[in-house]
Fold each of these.
Amino acid sequence: MKILVLGDVMGSSGRTALKKNFSKIVKEYEIDFSVINGENSADDGKGITKKIADELFSLGIDVITSGNHIWDKEETTKFIEKETRLLRPANLVKGSPGRGYGIYFSKNKKYKIGVINLMGNVFMKKTEDVFLTAKEIREKIILKKNVDFSIIDFHGEITSEKMAIGHFFDGNSTCVVGTHTHVPTADTRILEKGTAYQTDIGMCGDYNSVIGMNKENSLKKFFKNKNATKHFPSEGIGTLSGIVVDANEETGLAEKVFRLITGGSLEN
Ligand SMILES: [Fe+2]
Ligand SMILES: [Fe+2]
């Protein structure tokens, strides 16, 4: 089973890169299941609309995760109730619309895949305790009991929380990836008990920017220049950034993992 997980899709640059390359990647790496983080996929880099979610699903993406930007577009609070393939962090304050995890089928309907979305507590919006939520979910989504594979997107600012969650799910999950910082880390590996891990899988968007936003305007903002405007996405050629996990069908654990970084200024 080959799983593709891609980081935060940023504005039209990220979406264009996906449209151009997604099916090629699926074919080349024989991807069976794909998850992307869509929290920045709207034109202004803030949130996701129904139209864009549908557009991403029509490319063949199986599940869209998110993070702190999930409610930036008001319509999301409504359409998320019916759209079970769009997740918001599971530890958002109790009573939030939508769901934070789900069980999905592989395209051949042979396998059940759990996808879990969590959001860190440090330097992020106020949420429920992410470690307590993770513990509850780990008792509900169990490899080889009710799912064949599982994928965790931990949306967070700090590396230590992400690494701790990686170890917490080690042996209980196919892969744990971090998102939100929009910069890929170089610690891609398989943890001791078989879970593939990367602290942050980066962004799908234009890296000739400040984490996806126009660099000139970002600099003006940092220098407190009065001519600075609201942040807006940089629209150069986008890079797709994420990981490919080759997982064992018997154990649901990772056998191989590698970083996939293609196109734009990060082409490797
Ligand atoms: Fe993001
Ligand atoms: Fe974020």
Amino acid sequence: MKSGKEIRCSLCREPAVTRIAYAKLWLCKKHFIEFIEKRILETINRYRLAGRGQRILVAVSGGKDSITTLYMLHKASMEMGFKVIALHIDLGIGMYSKISRETVEHFCQSLRIPLITLDLKTLTGYSLPEFVHKTRRPPCSICGLLKRYLINVVAQEIKADAVALGHHLDDLLPYIFKNFILQNLFEISKLGPRTESENGLVGRIRPLYEVSEHEIALYAKLSNLPFVDEECPYAGKKNLDKQVKEFLNSLESLHPGIKISFARAVARNIHVYKALSTTKPLKKCMVCGAPSNDDICSFCKLTNRVAGKPLGAEVRLKIRDALSSLGLLE
Ligand SMILES: [Zn+2]
Ligand SMILES: [Zn+2]
């Protein structure tokens, strides 16, 4: 906020809390919240992210992005007639995981959203720090692999139509841009507002596709959404990612609206990128049946290395038991 005389909302006479440069608007708290909610609902409609009678599984870490995604899908679900089920994975990263889990549990209770909580250590015998220690691989790649696998098992078992993720404009654009620089054009096809289900890999939707990081932070704060404000202790951005992000933000300040235009243009051309695929269709893991590029999936390979045997099939049975006791198996 500038010092001196108070700036008023462009739509009413209340004090403004923020300026939306690309829309040439100053907005008060109420109108800012409405503005963001409208943007997210339009994204859900424009890209047909969810529809009547569907089951949407929302992966919730407890951070502002996933909490906002869950909250908005819950709101939309009542009007649009689809069902929202939340999934939280407790990775066993000390206090960070404990606080995240409690935040998600309380939030889902307060909105009466069905919640599935999976505990990595209970499922596999190892927490994320133990996986990292045993493999000496970068934590974020291990974490991503484990989460992708577990989320997909749950989505398959509950016959979800899609998995909703909390990725926003400032997560996706730098990644798209980086893949463009490196000419990994097919990768860009996976970074749009939605991916289709394919050979057992349940499709993903991203309701925050057109919302920036700053907007979500302000929205979550002004809406009093409970979220874990701490970053994952393992978080650390790679230099190139950070620089590409800064570059896009500096372009945005010179040309307000360019980030959203970029995101929409990519969404329109997803089919073009998808046609550039050189990979073979997904196979089924010989051990656990999960979709996989190789004969054995990366989860089975990883657990084989850490636990001495591939755990895919065993973990899937444990998950089925948990889902059955929640009454979520179809
Ligand atoms: Zn206003
Ligand atoms: Zn497997």
Amino acid sequence: MNYGIPYMGSKSKIVKEMIKVFPKADNFYDLFGGGFSVTHAMIVHRSKHYKSFHYNEIRKGACELIKDAIAGKYNYDVFKPNFVTRSEFQVEKERSFYHKIIWSFGNSGKNYLFGKDIEKQKESLHNAVVFDQFDDWAKKFFGFETFGKLKDIKERRLYCKNKIKYNKSKRMDLEQLERLEQLQQLQQLQQLEQLNFYNKSYIDVPIKDNSIIYCDPPYKGTADYDGNNRFNHAEFLDWVHENKSPVFISEYNIDDKRFRCIFKIKKRSLLSSDKSVGDKIEKLYVNKAGLNLLMKNKLNKSGQKL
Ligand SMILES: C[S@@+](CC[C@H](N)C(=O)[O-])C[C@H]1O[C@@H](n2cnc3c(N)ncnc32)[C@H](O)[C@@H]1O
């Protein structure tokens, strides 16, 4: 299962294992919530262990996109996505998080999703699948000019996917529709009365008593969210250390004796400064308050030794 929305630096692939580590409490805070994957997984798998969940993200528009997805705004029954061209993307990404995230390469919000050489064909396929409108290129590609009785956009996309596979033209895939389907799955979320949204810096989110805090801050020197590469890691680590609540931090490496690594997992990563792809070991660190609580609970739920 995919968790959350398509998002640069998403924890979707590893989150199911990672969340087993978090101790029970009244409140769970996801202070660098990004694409919502951690809060989503917590609500799906651990909703009995907390009274409320708190998602925070500093980027403008993230909360609205997630709330809209949960409310069903992106369901194909009500939303027939128009193809977004390169020039529309340049304008719309500044005012719509949907355009910024769904229609950008790697969900980074920066560059347009498709290369110039293939965008016209992508538009042809999109209009055929979503609107059953075939231009000459689409007629040639499919070998017919209407999907006829095949009305469901998801089914049409799968038909298209198989055709692409058969033709071995991998670059033709309808990635934007796959991303939309990930947004649609949020509609199935239950227990929403327990869910709170904040659009602030982590430091300004009011934390209630009896809480577990999870932090997935921008990695040092790697991710760049909306050109905001000035995240102050030293200040953040001081804040974590001084926090009375148990705080868990996702990082590749924290070379600071105040924090203890309690969990490791291999993650296929697309985010590195040289844009290379490879396996990285993602770690979960905890502050003193968190370590004390885990000790008290005797066993870290992942089964890994402290
Ligand atoms: C590594 S991503 C989080 C990914 C998220 N866990 C997921 O699975 O999609 C880091 C996030 O922290 C956000 N961020 C950066 N500075 C922040 C701050 N001061 N307070 C809160 N969020 C911040 C970034 O915009 C980005 O979305």
